């Protein structure tokens, strides 16, 4: 896959998945703006890319504000003359169950993940329009945004909202040739280490040792296993793919469905409470309710 001549921004690229995305884009030939609030680790990633023969610069703005988004897009244009790919990866965790979650815990997660995706997506789309369209917005979601994730109110709300942005922006930007897709990554990173039963596997990945085949087949591998999807979606080969939520992990790729009705019934005169009670208790909606329970990454033990 050849991305020569393209310019990409990856937010939150100092560690983990973001770092893998930035390095993979650079290996494919793109010039990369490596954003991270920890500018020192961003510079380390840049040094690795440059040492490998690639082109990259570091940028240290916090994601969430309009000013931060404009700064990272401005960095791409100032250093490389244009912007072709925006990967919105930056995020934080403040895991608390609902009754223990403070306002500031919720707000900082939504500010970074959801508002950061909005402001960066808007700034990138404006730059794409100025260049004539045909940009790539790659928004990073999570299995936690697709299903329940115990103790992650702000994170699940943000990641679900991000996939909502994928669908809406795909419709709004279609005529300009800009594609918008969501990546649903599963990888053995520092964030995964907090899931019960996962710490040993994360340590294995950190040491560069092979991940067991059954774990990889279950959809759980390293950050590098996800990066190929980002490179593909950034390329001209993916020009016809938009509005999708695509999962990646280990040896597994999956396409997530859009929400849709699974059962619908008509009743003359409408539905009062008694009719609904009958329909849900042995009636037409019996057996139609959807699974809601918390799930972890494929291949990982269930969390409690």
TrEMBL record:
A Pfam short name: adh_short_C2
UniProt xrefs under PANTHER family: DEHYDROGENASES, SHORT CHAIN, SCP2 DOMAIN-CONTAINING PROTEIN
Record family assignment: Belongs to the short-chain dehydrogenases/reductases (SDR) family.
Keyword Cell inner membrane among UniProt keywords: no
Molecular functions (GO terms): oxidoreductase activity
Gene3D superfamilies (UniProt xref): NAD(P)-binding Rossmann-like Domain (3.40.50.720)
Organism: Modestobacter versicolor
Key words, A-Z: Oxidoreductase
Protein name: 3-oxoacyl-ACP reductase
Highest taxon of source: Bacteria
């Amino acid at each position: 896959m050849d991305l020569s001549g393209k310019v990409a921004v990856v937010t939150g690229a100092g560690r983990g998945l973001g770092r893998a995305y930035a390095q993979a884009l650079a290996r494919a030939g793109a010039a990369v703006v490596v954003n991270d609030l920890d500018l020192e680790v961003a510079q380390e990633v840049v040094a690795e890319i440059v040492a490998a023969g690639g082109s990259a610069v570091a940028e240290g703005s916090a994601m969430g504000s309009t000013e931060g988004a404009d700064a990272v897009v401005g960095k791409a244009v100032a250093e490389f003359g244009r912007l072709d790919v925006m990967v919105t990866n930056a995020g934080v965790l403040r895991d608390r169950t609902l009754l223990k979650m403070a306002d500031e815990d919720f707000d900082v997660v939504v500010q970074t993940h959801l508002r950061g995706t909005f402001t960066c997506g808007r700034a990138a789309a404006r730059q794409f329009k100025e260049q004539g369209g045909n940009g790539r917005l790659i928004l990073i979601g999570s299995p936690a945004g697709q299903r329940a994730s115990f103790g992650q109110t702000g994170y699940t709300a943000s990641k679900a909202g991000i996939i909502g942005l994928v669908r809406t922006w795909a419709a709004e930007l279609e005529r300009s040739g800009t594609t918008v897709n969501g990546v649903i990554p599963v990888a053995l990173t520092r964030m995964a280490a907090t899931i019960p039963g996962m710490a040993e596997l994360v340590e294995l990945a950190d040491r560069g040792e092979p991940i067991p085949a059954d774990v990889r087949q279950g959809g759980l591998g390293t950050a590098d296993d996800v990066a190929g999807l980002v490179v593909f979606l950034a390329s001209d080969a993916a020009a016809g793919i938009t509005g999708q939520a695509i999962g990646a992990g280990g040896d597994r790729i999956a396409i997530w469905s859009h929400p849709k009705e699974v059962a619908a019934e008509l009743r003359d005169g409408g539905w009062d409470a008694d009719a609904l009670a009958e329909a849900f208790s042995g009636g037409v909606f019996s057996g139609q309710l959807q699974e809601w329970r918390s799930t972890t990454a494929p291949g990982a033990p269930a969390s409690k």
